[in-house]
Design the sequence.
């Protein structure tokens, strides 16, 4: 469903994403985890076409993002870490606008809007201006907009920001329903490791722009030596080890011990 090969991005001398390969099959929640600044958001934004890679290929549902950008984006929904919406529109105006962008039929748009506003508890605010919404309400509206055209792939960056416990529960159950019933592929980046542990089928851990581990939680446990640890323990062990390896490589390159100032 999503195939990424050699994805690479630099900003000046800084390498944000370093030749990443990913394969996300249909009907799976695929976690993308890493410390702050690891390259997760840059990776997701390149997969959605919001940032152009310096090198690499992205294929989404058979559409090469570089050669068929419109077709690739048509089957991809994106939920960013901040809810970017048009504050001066009402809920209905915003969702109808999205339906128009995707050239959806008016009756289908109306049915989908009713279904999604009911699901996300926004129906009574259908005619309200978005500027009056709380952060959490805007986040739920962004979910409605991303799911409106029924994408094959959903890319989600920090979905739980601003949501209350009820919203957390809704999103977690929704992810599992989308992969089970709709056979959707979901790429999920989150710092809420309990959420990733609960909903992800497989996980990659990125550090300093590179994938340092990948697999199911069970496979990551074996790799980290935390055979009965939770995802937080596994994550910390793997990222600490990858940082130690990086420090050692830098020390060998510059001829001094890790932690020693040159």
Sequence:
């Amino acid at each position: 469903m999503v195939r990424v090969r050699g994805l690479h991005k630099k900003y000046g001398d800084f390498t944000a994403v370093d030749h990443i390969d990913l394969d996300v099959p249909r009907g799976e929640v695929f976690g993308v985890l890493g410390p702050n600044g690891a390259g997760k958001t840059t990776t997701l934004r390149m997969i959605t076409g919001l940032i152009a890679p310096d090198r690499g290929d992205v294929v989404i549902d058979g559409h090469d993002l570089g050669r068929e950008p419109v077709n690739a984006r048509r089957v991809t929904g994106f939920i960013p870490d901040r809810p970017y919406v048009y504050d001066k529109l009402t809920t209905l105006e915003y969702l109808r606008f999205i339906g128009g962008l995707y050239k959806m039929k008016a009756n289908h748009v109306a049915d989908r809007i009713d279904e999604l506003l009911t699901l996300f508890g926004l129906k009574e605010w259908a005619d309200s201006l978005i500027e009056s919404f709380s952060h959490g309400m805007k986040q739920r509206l962004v979910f409605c907009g991303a799911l409106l055209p029924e994408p094959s792939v959903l890319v989600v960056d920090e979905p739980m920001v601003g949501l209350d416990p009820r919203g957390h529960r809704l999103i977690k159950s929704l992810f599992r329903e989308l992969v089970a019933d709709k056979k959707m592929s979901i790429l999920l980046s989150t710092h809420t490791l309990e959420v990733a542990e609960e909903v992800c089928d497989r996980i990659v851990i990125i550090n300093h722009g590179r994938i340092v581990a990948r697999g199911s939680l069970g496979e990551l446990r074996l790799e980290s030596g935390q055979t009965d640890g939770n995802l937080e323990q596994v994550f910390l062990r793997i990222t600490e080890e990858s940082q130690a390896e990086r420090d050692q490589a830098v020390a060998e390159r510059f001829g001094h011990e890790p932690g020693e100032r040159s």
